[in-house]
Write a structure and sequence with these properties.
Blueprint lengths: L2 H30 L5 H25 L8 H25 L3 H21 L6 E4 L2 E4 L4 H24 L5 H21 L4 H51 L7 H20 L8 H10 L12 H4 L7 H22 L5 H13 L20 H16 L10 H10 L7 H9 L1 H12 L1
Antiparallel strand pairs: 1-2
Length: 438
C-alpha cells in the first residue's frame, strides 16, 4: 500500500472512530434525558444509530483490507448503507418534530431499499470483484435518492426553523454548511468525510431542537405564571373591594392607595431613601398586596363601619381589632394560593399599617424602624387617601390641608424620611387623585 493510501486509510479510521464515539455520546444522552417523549427519543435514537451503522459500513468497504471472500456480506452491508443513508434525512425530520412528514417520506424512500436489493445481485448500482468496490452503471439511482433526501432535509430544517419563529436560523445554516462541506470532498476529491459531517450536524440538530423546545417550555411556564398571577391579582382586588365596599362607597380607595404606594416607593429610590431595601421586587410586592391592608375589617360590624359620627371608645377598640385580624386572615385566605414571601409581605401590610413612628399606634405599639417598611409606606398612602376622600362621617379635606396634616405628623405618626419624600412629590400624588376623581 502506498504511503498516501495508508494516510488516507488512517484518516478514514479516525473519522469513523470520531463519528462512532460522538453518536454513542448522543445516544447515552437521549436515553438518560427526561425532557422528550418516547416518540421523540425513538426518532433521535434511530438517527444516531443509523449514522453509526452507515459510518461503520462505509469504513468496512473502504478500509483498505478488502478480500474477495467478503464480497457477499459487504454487498449486503452496502445495500443497507445505501438504503439507510437517504433515510437519515427522514430520521432527522422525525427527531425535529415533523412526525407525519417523516412517516410519509419513509414509505417513499423505502423504495430505495427495494430497488437496490433487486439490483444488487446484478451489480447495476455497485459491485465487488477481486480488486474491491466499484460503482455500477446505475449508481446514479443512489445519487438521486441521496440528493432528494438532502433537499428534503433542507426543507425540513427551514420548516422547523419557521415553527420556532426562526429564532436560531444561524444554527440551521451552520448545519447545512457542515453537511455540504462533508459532501464536497467526497464528490470532487474522493475523500469521504460525509458521515463525520452528518454526525456533527445531527448533534447540532439535537442541541438546537432541545434548546428551542426548552425555550418554549419556559415561555409557556412564564405565560402560565403570568396568567395565574393575573387571576390572583383579580381575586385579591375583588376580595379587597368587597370588604372596602362595606366601609366606603366606592372601590377607588383600593386603586388610589395602590398607586400612592408605588409612587412613594419609586420616589424613595429616586431620592436615595431606603434604596437598599426598596428594590423593584419590593415595589411590585407592595403594589400587589396594598389592596389587602384593610382585609381585617371583615370582622367589624356594619354598624361601626358605617356609623355617620365619631366612634365611641368602645367602638374604636373594636375597630382597632381589624389590624391584628388582618394578618391572620391573609394567611388563611392565601395559604396554598401563593408563596410564603407574598403572604408574609401582605400580612405585614395588613397588620402594621396603623402603627405609628412614635410607638403609639396599634396593634403592637411598634416604634420607628421596628415597623416594617412596607407598612410605613402603606400608612402614608392610607391616611392621605382617607383625608382627601369623603366618608360617611366626614367631608373630604382639600389636598393642601391633607398635606399640611401629614407634615404635622412627621416623626410622630409617620416615618420622617418617608414623609419628606412624600411632600417632595406632591404633584405625583395629586395627579393620581385628580385622575381618579374625573
Amino acid at each position: 500500500m502506498l504511503p498516501t493510501q495508508k494516510g488516507i486509510m488512517n484518516f478514514y479510521s479516525w473519522c469513523t472512530i470520531l463519528t462512532e464515539l460522538m453518536m454513542i455520546a448522543m445516544i447515552l444522552h437521549v436515553v438518560r434525558y427526561s425532557g422528550f417523549t418516547k416518540q421523540q427519543k425513538g426518532w433521535f435514537l434511530a438517527t444516531f444509530i443509523a449514522i453509526m451503522f452507515c459510518s461503520a459500513a462505509e469504513f468496512a468497504v473502504h478500509c483498505g483490507f478488502y478480500d474477495q471472500s467478503f464480497a457477499i456480506p459487504l454487498t449486503i452491508l452496502t445495500v443497507l448503507q445505501f438504503s439507510f443513508a437517504p433515510m437519515l434525512a427522514i430520521a432527522f425530520s422525525g427527531a425535529l418534530g415533523l412526525h407525519k412528514q417523516a412517516l410519509i417520506a419513509s414509505m417513499v424512500f423505502s423504495l430505495g431499499l427495494l430497488i437496490q436489493a433487486i439490483m444488487a445481485p446484478f451489480g447495476l448500482v455497485f459491485y465487488f470483484n477481486e480488486s474491491g468496490y466499484f460503482r455500477g452503471n446505475l449508481f446514479f439511482i443512489y445519487e438521486i435518492f441521496y440528493g432528494v433526501s438532502l433537499v428534503y432535509l433542507i426543507v425540513c430544517m427551514l420548516v422547523v426553523g419557521k415553527r420556532f419563529r426562526n429564532r436560531d436560523m444561524i444554527t440551521i445554516v451552520m448545519v447545512l454548511i457542515i453537511i455540504i462541506a462533508g459532501i464536497i470532498p467526497m464528490a470532487f476529491f474522493k475523500i469521504n468525510i460525509t458521515y463525520v459531517a452528518i454526525a456533527i450536524s445531527a448533534s447540532l440538530c439535537y442541541i438546537y431542537y432541545n434548546d428551542l423546545v426548552q425555550q418554549d417550555i419556559q415561555a409557556e411556564v412564564k405565560e402560565n405564571q403570568k396568567r395565574i398571577s393575573g387571576m390572583q391579582e383579580h381575586i385579591i382586588s375583588g376580595l379587597a373591594n368587597l370588604i372596602e365596599s362595606r366601609d366606603i362607597e366606592t372601590g377607588e380607595h383600593i386603586n388610589r392607595t395602590k398607586a400612592y404606594t408605588k409612587i412613594l416607593s419609586e420616589a424613595c429610590v429616586k431620592d436615595g431613601v431606603y434604596k437598599d431595601q426598596i428594590t423593584d421586587h419590593f415595589i411590585d410586592l407592595l403594589y400587589q398586596t396594598a389592596p389587602l391592608h384593610d382585609i381585617g375589617k371583615i370582622v367589624v360590624s356594619d354598624v361601626i363601619l358605617r356609623k355617620p359620627a365619631r366612634l365611641t371608645p368602645e367602638e374604636y377598640e373594636i375597630m382597632k381589632k381589624h389590624a391584628a385580624v388582618g394578618g391572620a386572615v391573609v394567611h388563611k385566605v392565601l395559604e396554598g394560593v401563593t408563596d410564603d414571601e407574598y403572604i408574609a409581605f401582605a400580612s405585614d401590610v395588613a397588620t402594621y399599617h396603623h402603627e405609628k413612628w412614635n410607638g403609639e399606634g396599634y396593634p403592637k405599639k411598634l416604634k420607628g424602624e421596628e415597623i416594617p417598611l412596607s407598612a410605613r409606606i402603606m400608612a402614608l398612602a392610607d391616611v392621605f387617601d382617607a383625608l382627601v376622600s369623603e366618608r360617611c362621617y366626614k367631608k373630604p379635606f382639600p389636598p393642601e390641608e391633607a398635606f399640611a396634616i401629614i407634615e404635622s405628623e412627621c416623626g410622630t405618626h409617620f416615618d420622617p424620611n418617608l414623609t419628606k419624600v412624600f411632600l417632595n412629590h406632591k404633584d405625583e400624588f395629586l395627579s393620581v387623585l385628580e385622575s381618579k376623581t374625573e
